């Protein structure tokens, strides 16, 4: 998709003082391993100045041999004009402009609309909110969580989200399908549109059942008006972001297409101590393409060089360099967080037993590492870590005490005697022995969240 390809380019009309390298680095940091790999493939396709170095372990192909001993055999035939035109040619010069990418992603499109209309002091929230929009155009992160992650006021986040919901495509920023459809009818003017909005808000069951008679009686309108309202609803777009899906699926849908959870960080204990490994593509395998690098050096200080060519070379070479640097920075940050977990959560990462989890917050990790809390948030949100016992867990378990208690309850119930299941009081007592003091009703609440049955029902089951 073109999202990473557009990381360093904001719409020219915004005139925002945002360092493209910082924006790119923060976006690369938040990608999971799977998303990063697809983002790299996309950038390799979008940026002609970026190349992946060949792995020496890769099999030597016929093309590799020909390129070394008989390069003339690889030259395109004269009839293949489009292929010939796309290749660098030392004799005729490179038509660099023809190689430039001009696609726009959903997130770039939203950013261009949202940033100019929000107050300057809220633009950091707007940047974060846009990144929380998924490929369907829905805001996938609750408002409260955004405020917590950014240490922002709830009403400030609400202001930004309301502006987002006014952006195009209509319906973007909704939290579910119903909200999305209602947003598209926010400016309803005709009788049919106003009725459609009322149906969506209060009579979804009748709409799903296509019960036009019941709706007609409820609103005292003719069946034709109800049918027209149904057509209005059916003409709406339930997933407004999908118009951009051909550009965006490589970064925002990777986790939906990949059934297995792949760790982004691996913590391994050996006889020599802990080894922290950041999984995924090695940035050392990426480099600035040779022809672009050579031409970039040639154009330095050449005031007579064509402006279009010089601008293109400069943009794409710097974009490639920033892209590689951002991946290096992502690896360094994840490795430092992994080392912090090994140091402060050694009991849990060694055994996988949740009773050994110590109280930890992202702000504490950030303070210890000397980085911003939002950096830790971006580096860990939606990612997974493989701990010493081989188990793959979400980073969230380290930062959410509620998850720790839920997991401990699950562990207790797995070990109980099925003939004499434990009551909530007994579970609370066992938790207290493990150093976690919670009330019976708290146990009941967490058990409900994890869909675990009561002791009476567990015995029947």
Report on this structure.
- About 17% of the residues have low confidence.
- The longest helix has 38 residues.
- A four-stranded mixed sheet has the order 3-2-5-6. A two-stranded antiparallel sheet has the order 1-4.
- Helices cover 54% and strands 5% of the residues.
- β2 and β3 form a beta hairpin.
- It is built from 25 helices and six strands.
- The protein has 461 residues and is mostly helical.
- α1 packs across α17 and α6 crosses α8.
| Largest beta sheet: strand ordering | 3-2-5-6
Helix content: 40-55%
Give the low-pLDDT segments.
Answer: 5-16, 56-74, 76-102, 246-259, 453-458
**Structural class by SSE content:** mainly alpha
The biggest sheet amounts to: 4 strands, mixed
Radius of gyration: 28 Å
Query: What overall geometry do the principal axes of the alpha carbons give?
Result: flat
How many separate helices?
25
Give a count of the beta strands, DSSP E runs of length 2 or more: 6
> Which strand-content bin applies to the residues?
5-15%
Mean pLDDT over the full residue set: 77
Quaternary structure: single chain
First-residue to last-residue Cα separation: 49 Å
